[in-house]
Please model this.
Amino acid sequence: MSLPSLHFDALTARLLSDPRLAGKVFDTTVNSDGTVRTGEYLVLFGGNPDQVTSGRFNAPQMPDSDAVYRYTLRGVGGSKDAARDMCAAGFALLVGFQPVIAGRNCSRIRHDGADPIDRDPNESIPLWFGDDDYVLNSYKA
Model:
């Protein structure tokens, strides 16, 4: 499994460690049939690292180089309060969490800002969402 996948899976597992979020953590806002999900849920966005470095001036970047991963966690609900509650649940689980990934030394996850809760203007049903950004540094062990 790739390093980006291992990091993403560690965050997903952390979110799913809360029984209240069972069946409510996804990596997309749409169902398999293409319809927009409804109800209260979280969507974790992220993938390849935002920055990759060896820490040396002329060293080439490698897939296992030190990396900075940035993730966006979207809290969704049928009201502002519901979306806010989902964002708060994710925040409580991710901030300060230090993933354990074989061959890596990971920092504790930091919160890096949030957007205001807003209504999705493209949906006819009331669907509110808020995005929180998180940063994870990952170093070769």
